[in-house]
Amino acid sequence: MRALIRGVLVLLPLGFSVSVAGCKKKVDADQCNQLIDRYATLVVRERYADASVEQLKSEQQRERDEARGDENFRSCVSEVTEKEFNCAMKADSPQSLEKCLE
Fold it and tell me: How confident is the model at residue 22 (pLDDT cuts 50, 70, 90)?
């Protein structure tokens, strides 16, 4: 019995370190808003390259509102990791940003 307990005590820290390594830090609400803004900007730039400043602002707001309603963005805080966020913020197109979040 003692050998079994000793074996569990020896293996317990190994199991704990593996489970902690599996946990990845998630982004916060502010970062999710930054992500939405970045996505909206990329979409608008791609679709409306020749639009006026006012048109761009209006379209960006529309895209932000649409993105906030999307389930993927609503679950941002619980799903998106820091690594995915950093990748997405460097993206140069809506498609590449979406790939970062897959």
Answer: low
Strands (E), the chain: none
Residue 40 falls within a domain, yes or no?
A: yes
pLDDT in tens, 73-102: 778 899 999 999 999 999 999 999 999 998
Q: Tell me whether residue 6 is in a domain.
A: no
d(CA 61, CA 65): 6
- Would residue 73 count as lying in a domain? yes
Tell me which residue range forms the domain holding 42: 25-100
Number of folded domains that form the chain? 1
**Model confidence pLDDT, tens digit, residues 38-62:** 988 898 889 888 878 898 889 888 8
Distance CA 83, CA 62 (A): 27
